Amino acid sequence: MYRVTIDTDACDGIFACLTRDDRFAEGEDGLATIEADGETVRREDGRVVAEFDDDRRADAEQAAEACPPGAISVETVGELGGGPDE
Ligand code: SF4
Fold this sequence. Notes:
6 strands; 4-stranded antiparallel β-sheet; binds iron/sulfur cluster; globular; single chain; alpha+beta; two-stranded antiparallel sheet; Alpha-Beta Plaits
């Protein structure tokens, strides 16, 4: 399980992320958001947070690397007691 976070305050609307991972999309505000049917996507103040349990983490990491302002982060979330506590 991993969590993808977009810091929408840092996002510049460059959309390099979309070409790396099609779960990223242009939101109504012209900034990146995450669209994933059936997955948990939360909008928080200044952030979009989604959690996935699939084999596409590498795609998300490529999007994070491609993002010029570094607005995307990908991290492991705790599962089966083996993840880091937050
Ligand atoms: S690449 Fe980064 S700055 Fe560009 S739209 Fe995606 S999240 Fe925003």
